[in-house]
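Supplementary Methods, section 5.1.

A reviewer requested that the exact input to the structure prediction be made available. We therefore reproduce it here, unchanged from the version used in the analyses.
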Amino acid sequence: MCVASCARSGQGIRTFDGLQDILSCAVRRGGGKKSVVIQKYVEPCLLLDGARKFDIRAWVLVSNWNPLTVWMYEPYFRVCTEEHSLDAKSLANQYKHLCNRCVQVKNEDYDDADDAGGCMWSVESMREYLGKFGDGSALWSDIERQMMRISMLVMHSVQDLIDNKPGCFEWFGLDFMVDVDFNVWNLECNISPDLSKGTDVLERLVPNAFNKVWDMLLCKPPKEEERSREDCWDLVFHGRGDCAFLLSTYMSTLYLSILVSLYVSQREGVRSRERNREGG
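The structure derived from this sequence is encoded token-by-token as follows.
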């Protein structure tokens, strides 16, 4: 897949199966002035009922960059309107390959219902679907754990590049895919993700996410037994501060204490020799 780095909402994404086509697209789109991201297509990807492709949008919030503090809200699933195919003739069909809602909604067959034929699924619907492969709850829990770990690693990778400002937070939208072995792959990280409503799933998630964000930013999050699992932000990671800074501070303090000790020892030695001379 070839994606212009400045594109958004599914714009400028092309799918190819040949190196020459990829290079031509990169040169044509980038032109030496703008960067282009080339990403390996996730295959074979897990399909709904063996037919439709989907991805996962998860809201990830960083309330502090140092110590790194990462949260994740209940995700939702964006489903393609047409059956998936890797046939060369189908690669240009965005309704088969791009799960973005802003793309799929243009198809006359788009249905935003949270059901088997719909294009916007909830966690509960996905958990039920995963039951076809075994323990649906256990499979979803494993997928969720992978998403959380990846989210933490993504934020950690840029932690040193961000100017940490107390009292500020950043809200991201991370997109994931799942392959047939239930491995999770991160597609991209979006700044200022779409928080509009318009579907049954988003009508519930968006207001709750906005309301609950203050629970973690302005006061202590409720205890696990006092909150609904699907109505809260879950803490993904909370670090212990900048280790490099702490180590540097410790070493500087240690070095200073050694210098002071040497100075005091030297002064004591001088005084001792002066006393010996006076006594002699």
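The first helix runs from residue 19 to 30. These observations are discussed further in the main text.
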